[in-house]
Amino acid sequence: MSASGGTKAIVAALLANLSIAVAKFVAFVFSGSSSMLAESVHSLADSGNQGLLLLGGKRAQRAATPQHPFGFGRERYIYAFLVSIVLFSVGGMFALYEGYEKIRHPHELEHWYWPVGVLVFAIIAESFSFRTAIKESNTLRGKKSWKEFVRHAKAPELPVVLLEDLGALVGLVLALGGVGLALLTGDGVWDGIGTLCIGILLILIALVLAAETKSLLLGEAAGIETVQQIEAAIVAGDTVTGIIHMRTLHLGPEELLVAAKISVRHDGTATEIASAIDAAEARIREAVPIARVIYLEPDIYSAAEAAKGPDREATPGGPASPPAAH
Fold first, then answer.
1. What angle do CA 195, 196, 198 make, to 5 degrees?
2. Of 140, 196, 242, 200, nearest in space to 149 by CA
3. 274 in helix, strand or coil?
4. Lowest CB count within 10 Å: 11, 79, 193, 244, which one?
5. What is the predicted pLDDT for the residue at 318?
6. Given this model, what pLDDT does residue 81 score?
7. CA distances (Å), 194 to each of 39, 80, 83, 146, 183, in order?
8. pLDDT in tens, 122-153
9. Sign of CA dihedral 2, 7, 146, 153
């Protein structure tokens, strides 16, 4: 996985969640707090999430094969989707069930100092993990808002880890609130309510991640700025006079397919046109290094044909247009 995949942030989150999961489960054994049990499953699920992200990054590095000629870059999207659907949802549904059972059959917390101490420790550990994820993300985020970064990032790992860590911190606060109210009132129902809130939080995060990773799996075009760089690189030579239409598609976070029909001078020889295409491909790769697969088709621009409108059979999707926000 490349540096932009946020490997450092994933490993930091994995180590933090494994240690926190053990501590939370010990606290549950001594106190009987359903919030602690839900948080134990939450941290264990988060650890599995990071393991899947690392596995996806490793599998995505496999070389292309005749059966998969464009490589395996989308493995990273698949494993991120599994994280959002399976582990987050399982953790959320378990927390909802546990909270419901605790509200139906509340009991007083025992050895309250165990859950309180572990929750404070967990908040500190998760804060360090969250800080690492923020630091890693800032190198890629640029001037984008956090919402824009999560919605439009082509590498799924950092958005997943960011939302995981944010959800973990909010969940810990909810668990601490539930345990605290249960201790103050002597009513174990508050512990169950805190557990329900944790479940709702996890399911909401799962829905957000599922929506974003689904878009990546379906295939997203390059960002507007990248498209403009590619267009400028294509027409920088003398022989290529314009772009009739162009398509871009992310084969993976760091792999971009570029397909374009370009207009060339009508009096150019085959050798001149072939040389112009080779030069245009070199300029594209220099401007956008992630453009790994490039197909340029030469044609003669016809104003009369262009006036007929988009030819959807010859060009699926019609003429090129700026990528829309999802």
1. 65
2. 140
3. helix
4. 11
5. 42
6. 87
7. 10, 28, 24, 27, 13
8. 888 888 888 888 888 888 787 888 888 888 88
9. positive
Distance CA(149)–CA(146), nearest Å, equals 5
CB 290 within 8 A of CB 230: no
Q: Which residues of the chain have pLDDT under 50?
A: 1-5, 312, 315-326
The strand pairing partners of 28, in sequence order, are none
Joined tokens for residue 27 = 């606290």
| Helix 270-287 and helix 224-234, axial crossing angle in degrees, nearest 10 | 150
Supply 303's token pair. Answer: 């104003």
* 141 Cβ contact list (under 8 Å, min separation 6): 149
Contact at 8 Å (CB) between 198 and 174? yes
- Cα separation of 238 and 258, whole Å? 20
User: pLDDT digit string (tens) for 217-263?
Assistant: 888 889 888 999 999 999 887 788 888 889 999 988 889 999 999 88
3-class secondary-structure state, position 92: helix
Owner of token pair 């994820």? 133
DSSP SS3 for 207: helix
| pTM passes above 0.85 | no
CA distances, 302 to each of 216, 242, 264, 299 (Å): 35, 11, 11, 9
Q: Are 202 and 88 in contact (CB under 8 A)?
A: yes
Paired with 246 in beta bridges are 260
DSSP 8-state assignment for residue 235: T
Phi-psi region at 309: left, alpha or beta (left = phi > 0; alpha = psi -120 to 50):
left
CB of 22 within 8 A of CB of 149? no
> What whole-number distance in Å separates Cα of residue 291 and Cα of residue 230?
9
Measured on CA atoms in the order 292, 293, 298, 302, is the torsion positive or negative? Answer: negative
Copy the structure tokens of residue 127: 């804060």
Our CA angle for 226, 213, 141, nearest 5°, is 45
